[in-house]
Amino acid sequence: MELIDRFFKPPKASFFLFGPRGTGKSTFISKVFKDSLSVDLLDPERVRYFSAMPERLKEITDAYPKPGTLVIDEIQKVPDLLPVVHSVMEQKKGWNFILTGSSARKLKRSGVDLLGGRAILCTMHPFMASEMGSRFSFDDALLHGLLPIVVASENPADVLRSYAALYLREEVQMEGLVRNIGNFSRFLEAISFSHASILNISNVARECAVERKVVEGYVEILEDILLGWRLPVFTKRAKRKLALHPKFFLFDAGVFRSLRPQGPFDRPEEIEGQALEGLIAQHLKAWIAYSDVKRELFFWRTRSGVEVDFIVYGEDGIWAIEVKNTQHIRPADLRGLRSFKEEFPEGKTFFLYRGKDRLSREDTLCLPCKEFLAALQPDLVLEEFFSISHK
User: Fold this and answer.
1) What counts of helices (H) and strands (E) characterise the chain?
2) Are residues 74 and 181 in the same domain?
3) How many domains does the chain have?
4) In terms of domains, do 211 and 339 share one?
5) Is 10 among the domain residues?
6) CA–CA separation, 124 and 106 (whole Å)
7) 10-residue block means of pLDDT along the chain (391 residues)?
8) What secondary structure letter does DSSP report for 95?
9) Of the candidates 301, 356, 300, the residue with the CA atom closest to the CA atom of residue 329
10) For residue 391, what pLDDT is reported?
């Protein structure tokens, strides 16, 4: 498969590049920074070498008369390298560092506060539809997600089946993040039911027969190893009583499908709906991460159960987005957006659905999901959707 250009724009200064495994961090860095020095910590021998004496990194930089760029791949494997990197930066020798990682857990505990703000924090996400262009398949994305390692495979289902096992073995078990890998495996299955839903820790604990406090720790591990994330409630200028609990998302629709058990009592349309909302969520998260404009992502839900799936709040406005796995729009489908508009009349509202036509209903722009995803890219302001001609 030919390389697909990514929207991520690397900073000119030193930076961390975090992202789940298989999102293409190493491929991107090797392409854009092909003349840089490199330390690959996926190589066990290199891990042993630098773990024994982290100061060997300084010996490398001292060996070059002119400073350059040094890439350290999977920096979390040897967090003791961070103080050395920090020291070289403090000496102002002109070196730029690119530090990639698929987990921030060990780095957070290393005591150097991620280089004290001297390196910019960046993230790499699964493909966006607009990155793939004509190669994007909406149906395939719903089924297998958009992880580059999966998209490039001839057998995406097989790669997804082994993906969670790889994380369990190399990010959780080998790093000693949990004491009981069996409990954590059951938790992964149980938490998949919470994808695109309100996160109820007590319910998850009951499902996997693990104490509530342990499950809270497991959710934090998922966030630290970048497999999942929590979406907070939008509470700015709130007039109504709002829900307190966040929603939860696995980072990729395909990974969700691979973890979600299916049986006689599981309705396919429910799983399809969760996958669809998750696909929109991962695109919005990537769009925000790659954009120059500062924005934040929330959801909105009142205590009475009126909900809007996504709220985008930023320098350029406030946007409410409802997602439905339906081909037809009923008045009831717009209830949450109507309520949000009453409280925030300055907001713009979108309804994303599985139909084919762009429509305007109750001052809400209704778009086919595929059209929304295909057009969404970092330099696009959501306001522009209201002026884009129907294709």
Assistant:
1) 17, 14
2) no
3) 2
4) yes
5) no
6) 19
7) 87 93 93 93 95 95 92 93 90 89 75 68 96 96 96 93 82 76 90 96 93 94 92 87 91 95 80 97 98 95 93 94 96 96 94 96 95 93 73 43
8) -
9) 356
10) 43
Q: What is the dihedral of CA 12, 13, 15, 17, to 10 degrees?
A: 10
Q: Nearest 10 degrees: CA dihedral of 109, 114, 115, 118? A: -170
Least Cα distance to 17 among 4, 30, 34, 3 occurs for 30
φ/ψ bin of 166: left (φ > 0), alpha (ψ from -120 to 50), beta (otherwise): alpha
Burial of 163 from C-beta contacts in 10 A (0-12 / 13-18 / 19+): buried
Burial of residue 390 (number of CB atoms within 10 Å: 0-12, 13-18, 19+): exposed
Tracing tokens 């998922």 back to the chain, one arrives at 222
Beta-sheet pairing, 96-101 with 69-73: parallel
Q: Which of 88, 75, 77 is nearest to 114 (CA)?
A: 75
Tokens of 114: 């991620």
The answer to whether residue 4 is domain-embedded is no
Query: In the structure encoding, which two tokens stand for residue 98, read together?
Result: 């690119």
| Helices marked H in the chain | 25-32, 44-52, 56-62, 81-90, 105-108, 113-116, 129-132, 138-144, 148-151, 156-167, 181-192, 201-208, 212-224, 253-259, 268-290, 335-343, 369-375
Alpha-carbon distance 57 to 82, whole Å? 10
Are the CB atoms for 196 and 247 separated by under 8 Å?
yes
| Distances, alpha carbon 150 to alpha carbons 27, 128, 240, in Å | 14, 14, 43
Q: How far apart are CA 132 and CA 248, in angstroms?
A: 26
Which residue range is the domain that position 25 belongs to? Answer: 15-123
Q: How far is CA 323 from CA 65, 214, 230, 304, in A?
A: 56, 32, 18, 19
- Retrieve residue 308's tokens: 């809007």
